[in-house]
Structures are given as C-alpha cells and as structure tokens.
Amino acid sequence: MILNIAHRGFSAEYPENTLLSFEKALELGVTWLELDLQVTSDEHLVVMHDGRVDRTTDGSGLVSEKTLEQVRLLDAGIWRGDAFKETRVPTFDQVLEAFGSRARIVVELKFEGQEAIPAVLDAIASTGQRDRIVISSFDLPKLPIVKALAPDAAITALLKANGRSPEELIETTLGLGADTIAPRCNEIDVTLVDHAHQAGLLVRAWGLGRDQGQEMTRLIDLGVDGMTTDCPDILQRILLDRNLV
Ligand code: G3P
Ligand code: CA
Predict the structure, then answer these.
(1) Fewer beta carbons within 10 Å, N or C terminal of the chain?
(2) 206 DSSP 8-state letter
(3) Which atom of ligand 1 lies closest to the CA of 5?
C-alpha cells in the first residue's frame, strides 16, 4: 500500500497547517496528514512550518518569542486570500483532538532544540493512540532522543542526500533508530528503494508539489511506500486509477 500523506494538509489549495487544510485533505479520502511543530515562548506546541510567523500569517517575528495568546490572534489564512480570513494557527492539541482518531499523522519536529520533545510525546500519549502517529525530523539528533523516550514510536528520518550514496543514507537512518527513510523525491532511485527495503526500512518521498503527476508515477513504479505531497488530490487520483487504494 502506498501512503498518500497530505503535506501541511491540502496545502496546494488551502492555508497550510490549519484545521481547514487538514479537513479538506480528509474530504479527498486521504487518511494521512503531515504537520510541523513550533514552540511558543510560554512552551505551547503550535502547528506552523516556519520559525517566523511572517510568511503564513498577518504578523511578524519569531514564534518562540510570542505567547500562545499572541499566536492565537494571528490570521493564518488571509495570505492565501480573503476567503480564508480569520483562519487560526492551531495548537498541536487541537489537531490531535480533531484528527487523532480520523487520520494518521506525521508530526515533524521543526522547533529549535530538544527541550520540547517530551511535551510532544506526552501530547501524543494522552490521545491513547500513539501507534497512529509518526515522528519525523530533518534535525536528525532529535530522533534517537525520541527513540529513547518512546521506543515503540514510528520514526521517519527526513534527509537531503547532499551527494551521499544510498548506502550512506540507509546507514545513517538505521543508526538513528528510524524505521523510515525519507529523501527528497528527486533523490530516490531504484537502488535506494531496493537497498532500503532489504535493510527493513520503508521509503517515503517528499517535495511533491504541483505538476508532479509524472514524478508520482515514477515513484510508484519504483516501489516507494508513501509520498508526502501538497497535492494529495492528484496522488489520490493516480492511486485510484491504478487500483492502489
Ligand atoms: O515530510 C517532509 C516535508 O515536510 C518536507 O519538508 O520543509 O515541507 O517541512 P518541509
Ligand atoms: Ca514538514
């Protein structure tokens, strides 16, 4: 089965990392969501990609220098058009409550530092559905910490190859205690997929935006286990056409 993971929700069409974007992804029949976590100055986990609020809200400054109350006042929809005015930045707890039982969630640890990792795991544990949630990060030293605190957690290593061979990437991933290797889509080839599978790893691609139906098809043919995409509508159509859902 190839997972269709809605990257920041249905982010090609709706304001990313919002309840609306996640809801719209589920309306497509998608059952996996991806989100990013930042931490406020008063140590609340909020769902936002960037460390600064400038790109995706009407505010300015670092999330880490704002209280939850200040983040709650931001408009996280208006940048995508008036129709989305007054869409709010959700807390991690809000997303878990709204979607924890309806979707599987890939949580990316985007925040700086490692202090907030236990709070992420506690929030997930409090849902009673830890097995429905995957932890991921590009900040690889975070992953063994997750593994130590939650040995059963599903862990995805997000990687940029930077000239490293498939063998090196696989060795890195295994060394972190991750079960899934996730390189950028264009860095995935047949050698990487085959060797990762032989090593017992799942392979998931990211970096799939608009106009990448051909790339999705290439990755399906290579045998990847999932894709994280801004366009879960396009991937869903391809998977349905090929009887893969
Ligand atoms: O799943 C990986 C994906 O989220 C890629 O990175 O920058 O969108 O968080 P980014
Ligand atoms: Ca992400």
Answers:
(1) N
(2) E
(3) 1
